[in-house]
Amino acid sequence: MTIEDIHVEQRNGVRTIRIDRPAKRNSLARPHLDALRELLVSYANDPSVRCLVITGTGKAFCAGADVDEWAEAEARGELDTYGWTDKAHAFVQLLAAFPSPTVAALNGSAVGAGTDIGFACDFRIASASASLRCGYTGMGYSPDMGGSWFLPRIARPDVAKRFIFLNERWSAQDAHAAGLVSEVIEDNAFQEHVNRFADRLASGPSVAFGHTKALLVRTLSATLAEQLEREMEAGVACGHSEDGQEALRASVEGRAPQFAGR
């Protein structure tokens, strides 16, 4: 599926998905969620995608659900069945499990599901003018799209509860102090910084990154013995990769490795 509100850009090994609905603050209706999910399915095994960036156009990163579509579903008596949440959950599961490093470039405000997209990424780089707000409780709802799973893994329990319960608008600086974003960059340097950071990730050992992400996700539910066994299996796979072999050659030859992402 292709959709005019979502644009894809490629630079070296960096694939950028840009939500381009500035008049709607980059909110997501069901067709957008379908398109995003299908993009991730196609990119997951694409060797040219060594880093994935998600960002928005204009003053918003993503305002979450499209409230007009939401209101129409409620007016028809279809709120429980119109499928937005199912589609959002399918998308965010793929994003959280994406094998290459992921970066949420928070160019502006993130609300509700927009924050969850950021939380599902490995890194959240915020512009100085960006902000985060839970949104769900302000609409009388509890979090979905993984917010209740991601937040306790990112921030202290009391921080997560305050962010959700009080529905405060947190500046990028406040969000950074609370651990919700990785770093805050001045607006005039934001895009250049995101590009440099993504380039560094894309030039790294992609196979090792993929195994590392899988290990980190599973470690919270594993025993030490189980995790050590998984580490051994991952290490063997990395050692047989082109990147692993290149790194060993480079070490012997006293030079920096040139990783191919394989």
TrEMBL record:
GO molecular function terms noted in the UniProt entry: 3-hydroxyacyl-CoA dehydratase activity
UniProt EC number: 4.2.1.150
Transmembrane segments: none
Record keyword Lyase present: yes
Domain of life: Bacteria
Pfam families xrefs: ECH_1
The entry's keywords: Lyase
Top EC class of this enzyme: lyase
Family the entry assigns: Belongs to the enoyl-CoA hydratase/isomerase family.
Protein name as annotated: Crotonyl-CoA hydratase
Annotated source species: Paraburkholderia aspalathi
Lineage: Bacteria, Pseudomonadati, Pseudomonadota, Betaproteobacteria, Burkholderiales
